[in-house]
Amino acid sequence: MTNTEPAVVCSGLVRSYGERRALDGIDLTLEQGQTLVVFGPNGAGKTTLLRVLSTLLRPSAGDASVLGSDLRKEGWKVRSQIGFLGHQSLCFGDLTARENLRYHAKLHGIENAAARVEAVLEQAGLSGRGDERVFGYSRGMLQRLAICRAVLHQPQVLLLDEPRSNLDPAAIEQVEPLIGAASGRTRVVASHDPAGGLAEADLVLGLRNGAAVLLERAAQATTEQIRELYR
Amino acid sequence: MSTVRPPSTLSAARTVLYKELTLERRAPQTLTAMALFCASAFVIFHFALARNEVEGALAAGVLWVTLTLAALLGIGRSFVADREEGGLDGFLLAPAPRISLLFAKAAALLIFLLIIGFFAALLLSVMLLGPTPDGAQWASLALLILLADLGIALVGTLVAGIAIQTRARDLITSILALPLLIPLLIAVTKASEPLLSVGGGTLAWRWLALLGLYDLIFGLLAYALFDYLIED
Amino acid sequence: MSTTKNLYGRRLPGYAIATAVVLTAAIGLAFFFAPIEADQGFSQKIFYIHVPLAIVTLGGFIFGGIFGIKYLRSGESRDDLRSYTAIHQGVIFCIGALITGCIWAKASWGQWWVWDEPTLVSFLIIFLLYTTYQPLRFSIEDPERQARYAAVFAVVAGVFVPVNFIAVRLAAPLIHPRVFSNSGDSLPGDMRIAFYTALIGTALLFITICKYEMSSKHSRAQLAALRRSIGGESDEPNAARRAAPRVAVR
């Protein structure tokens, strides 16, 4: 794994469910440290793409690799380097925030788990309520906790599915160092916000019905092109 | 800066097991339901069989039918919380060895079944059992409960793993688990019969051997096939 | 397309003819050549139908498990189709074995069902298990996952069969006549010929029906694919859930 290797490479990536193709031949290359923002209406395949890159789903056909490891054969190698934030928090309601994060820390094999958990809770502004059971959390707090879980093991690649949903502007600012461009990590972000998404992107991908209808450097893309996807 | 190294199978299994037990301790639904089920079942058997006391083969049957059906409750719960709260995804994203999930789930189910098994045996001896087993017979019964519950836990985790991805989860669990458990039930009821009889008796080794064989075979099957159920 | 024409139906006509010939011979041998058994009388003849059905059922389930293993390792939908068909037909033959077993029980011992015959009881248990195969498949929508889980089931159930036989045999007292006892083949020569002919005929029947089912599914899939390529969406409700595997058209 060299430092100049691209972070994410997809070549003819297909993911199908029976006859339906949720992803229909995606090609892209994302360099390390860069941000890819994925746009598209609901059902276009954004979540599927993120789930395939996170190793939760296997490609049906074509190739996908993250940090040089082919996801079909060597996906297990890069799990430690991938942080995934989906629509579910993946935290258990009957456990406290601290217990949830410690659980995930142990599953990732993080040494000094307790210290790391405290640090992340502090950054997300949840330290004060870290010992409350999670089912009592508001949606915003739950989202922040989910972000904590995603970055807990300090992954090189972040896969974020609408990360700022349910967050108020203050919270967005708070989690920016964790999941924003400032974090310095390679990011793949699914977004519904044309202007905001374009602003933070290096590369833009537009999906419709599983196919890539737009793939541009952010500098060349316009918000009008993105809005076109949704019509 | 904390370092990250994939956990060992044992460490990951221990982590998941601890999580399972903590969740049950916080919201003790499964154990309570299984215990209540056993008590109700014994009451039903009293009326349905029109007996104040049972012994021998009948007692063995009442005990093990009750425990098996109670186990179905536990098996159904085994993966439900994970599915609902995305716990399975959380596990799959981590670099933990997949087989550790099988170990943890089976161990959790085994612990629940052992608690309920001993509870049911005690309850039976108070409510419905005619003869009073002596110390040696109780010890043998305990061994049977251990071996049988191990088999039920292994088969149950395997079946739960299959059923969780289906749309008719509870139905599939029941219709799959029950026929698979019949050989185990045959062995354990035949073995329990002399222990619960008037005049007493001892454990026949052939049923222990069959139980052991059953546990071994299904343990190996679960170990070999679990990955195919978990990975997408 | 012509290269895939006989993917599943290879030599199907040959098998069909062979089946017809051997089964006819078997019936002839069983009813006219083999002697009438002393104890049980003419009704014993059902043995020539019941036992072959039972043996072929077991063979079908075991092949279902073997193809299940093959599918898990290869991911080829052909193996899934073979596993499905073997088990599907196995269940049908199992029903036949159970019914003829009951008829034999009624004729021999006066009752429709006897708990003392361990083989019959084992078959009932196996039947109960394998009838869950279709509902299981039907309840999983994603075809790839459906095939994978069905294969896992096929392997578990296949291993279960011998364990079940051992358990039931240990549990039941042995008081009924067994055809192939441990002390050697207890069938006299005439009966043996009739029996083995019936066995081969039943096995051929099983193979023929399986081949027919697989090739007919394949043809239907080819037709649907053609319709799709000509006119966009096909008439078939492809989106509908079904238990049968989707056949890959190559």
Can you characterise this structure?
The complex is a heterotrimer of chains A (231), B (232) and C (250). Chain A is α/β, with parallel strands linked by helices. Chain A contains eight helices and ten strands. In chain A, helix 6 links the parallel strand 7 and strand 8. The relative contact order of chain B is 0.15. Chain B has one domain. With 250 residues, chain C is mostly helical. Chain C has a two-stranded antiparallel sheet with strand order 1-2. In chain C, a hairpin with a 2-residue loop joins strand 1 and strand 2.
SSE arrangement:
The complex is a heterotrimer of chains A (231), B (232) and C (250).
Chain A: E1 8-17, E2 20-30, E3 35-39, H1 46-53, E4 61-66, E5 69-70, H2 71-74, E6 82-85, H3 97-108, H4 113-124, H5 139-151, E7 157-161, H6 169-179, E8 186-190, H7 194-200, E9 203-208, E10 211-217, H8 223-229
Parallel strand pairs in A: 3-8, 3-9, 6-7, 7-8
Antiparallel strand pairs in A: 1-2, 1-4, 4-5, 9-10
Helix pairs in contact in A: 3-4, 4-5, 5-6
Chain B: H1 9-26, H2 29-49, H3 56-78, H4 80-85, H5 87-93, H6 99-127, H7 135-163, H8 169-192, H9 205-230
Chain C: H1 12-33, H2 47-74, H3 77-109, H4 118-130, H5 133-138, H6 143-171, E1 180-181, E2 184-185, H7 189-231
Antiparallel strand pairs in C: 1-2
